[in-house]
């Protein structure tokens, strides 16, 4: 469905440090990093290169501004990984938008956690399984 998702950031090195840790926790592999551009991208090892999650300076050169109502959700292999990713994000400067837990309003086994990254972009980590 998606080719890539791009999140604009205000401080590339700070955002890269944050997302590198989060992606490692989620077992999402770094595909590229270019400090000069600046941008970096990750994708799941089993995804054949797509979709990509990319962070970088906004292409139009203007100041980053997070969107209201926009969010990216990363799959986690299990509920423990959702909790670990959330805790890692909070320890590294993210702000809570919803602690790890079941969200039965979505479906009976939806286990998610929500936070804002260092630039205010909303992020979800979710497991759709029963464990």
Description:
The protein is an alpha/beta fold and 131 residues long. It has a single domain, classed as 2,3-Dihydroxybiphenyl 1,2-Dioxygenase, domain 1 (Roll). Helices cover 21% and strands 35% of the residues. It has 2 helices and 8 strands. The chain has helices spanning 12-25, 79-91, and strands at 4-8, 29-34, 39-43, 52-56, 71-75, 95-102, 111-116, 122-127. The strands form 2 sheets. It has a 4-stranded mixed β-sheet with strand order 1-4-3-2, with helices on one face. A 4-stranded mixed β-sheet has the order 5-8-7-6. Strand 6 (95-102) and strand 7 (111-116) form a beta hairpin. Helix 1 runs antiparallel to helix 2. It is globular. The mean pLDDT is 92.
List the helices and strands and how they pair.
Layout: E1 4-8, H1 12-25, E2 29-34, E3 39-43, E4 52-56, E5 71-75, H2 79-91, E6 95-102, E7 111-116, E8 122-127
Parallel strand pairs: 1-4, 5-8
Antiparallel strand pairs: 2-3, 3-4, 6-7, 7-8
Helix pairs in contact: 1-2
Radius of gyration: 14 Å
CATH C-level category: Alpha Beta
How many strand elements?
8
What is the number of helices? 2
Describe the global form: globular
Can you give the mean pLDDT?
A: 92
Strand content: 35-45%
How many structural domains in the coordinates? 1
CATH superfamily: 2,3-Dihydroxybiphenyl 1,2-Dioxygenase, domain 1
The main sheet comes to: 4 strands, mixed
Low-confidence stretches: none
Q: Do you know the CATH topology?
A: 2,3-Dihydroxybiphenyl 1,2-Dioxygenase, domain 1
Major sheet: arrangement of strands: 1-4-3-2
Work out the helicity level: 10-25%
């Amino acid at each position: 469905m998606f080719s890539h998702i791009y999140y604009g950031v205000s401080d590339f090195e700070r955002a890269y440090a944050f997302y590198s840790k989060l992606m490692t926790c989620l077992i999402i592999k770094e595909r590229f990093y270019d400090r000069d551009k600046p941008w970096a991208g990750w994708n799941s090892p089993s995804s054949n290169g797509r979709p990509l999650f990319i962070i970088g300076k906004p292409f139009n050169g203007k100041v980053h501004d997070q969107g209201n109502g926009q969010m990216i959700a990363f799959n986690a292999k299990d509920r423990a990984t959702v909790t670990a990713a959330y805790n890692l994000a909070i320890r590294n400067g993210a702000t809570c938008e919803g602690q790890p837990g079941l969200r039965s309003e979505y479906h009976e086994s939806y286990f998610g956690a929500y936070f804002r990254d260092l630039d205010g972009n909303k992020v979800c980590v979710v497991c759709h399984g029963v464990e």
